[in-house]
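Sample entry (393 residues):
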Amino acid sequence: MEILFYRYNSICEPDILQVFTDFGITVHVEDLEMHNKKATPRECAGKVSGWILQRPLAFVFSINFFPAISYTCEKLKVPYVCWSVDSPVPELFSNALKNSCNRVFLFDRAQYEFFSPINPSCIYYLPLATNVNRWEKIVLGMTGADFARYGGDVAFVGSLYTEKCRYDRLALSDHTRGFVDGLIESQMGVFGCNLIPESLTEEVIREIADADPDFYKSDDSYADMSRYLAAHQYIGMKLAAVERQRTLAFLSERFHVNLYTRSDASSLPKVNCPGGVNTLTEMPKVFHASRINLNITMRPIETGLSLRIWDVLGCGGFLITNYQAEIPEYFEIGKDLETYESMKELEEKIRYYLTHEEERVEIAIHGYETVAKYHTWRLRLAQMIKILTERPE
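Predicted structure, serialized as tokens:
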């Protein structure tokens, strides 16, 4: 079997590519967008069609959905398999999502339920996973110096989203700012339910869209995506920035907190910020050496589990994460990981586990064993291949 892997440098691409190869699949790689981030859809289509016309490909694969690839595969009658690992993904509003060549896998069940009615027989739900073998090679080789450098009481690895927040750059009325601020405050106290999309008025949506000349627009969409984008890409990112800064500031008043980020952390004077870490070589050392790892899922991921959850557990780290509706489907809370639904609960659980070492280590070990047994990229891609091969044509 031969496939084409269209890459754009997602962090999970190397692991997925390796699993395909381990399955005995011949993988050809098109890396246009790894070197040219301004590549046009026409250039993308040209590259993909060239591969299809040269080789008997079983399918074309990508992380996230590329309409240009879908249209090309539809025209040349080759299946297009993609796996969404992000949210939001505006490209899912393209008419290309309706193509019969598609085999679209979405990691967030709420995302799946939102988009699957557009093409029910071609859209599937599939959660993310991790590569425990990769992480084992790193954490088992850690030295005392590594534990001293990367260890600590509470650690958070990730962006503060301040530099990615388009909302802050918009010229909006005081009324809209006040409305959105109130909506953010309401959402901050609610986990497992996204209040924002249905709470937005048409006036607020229109003002946000008109205020940004780069607001995502497409002549190739099957529905108006303005509400979705305003809620997720603008207010959702703003909420992520507020929530992460407020949570870390709160915790830094009570515990020693290490923040590994390339964002500007000057607003968090009591947080220790050594800077960013390399995802493949340093991040697993932080996860393994830290007594408590914190995950704060950005709210546009409504019910699903972000890659960070799988990776912390895959590194043998102890994790406390905000509650997500899908967590009980894959993990036992208090046995594989811990969750919180308020700042008070987060504080209480951190204080508890910092003074209950044996229990904390047992949970970290059990969480690792669970992902190693049930949630690796190899197992997840085997599920994907099974769905593809059993799918009625």
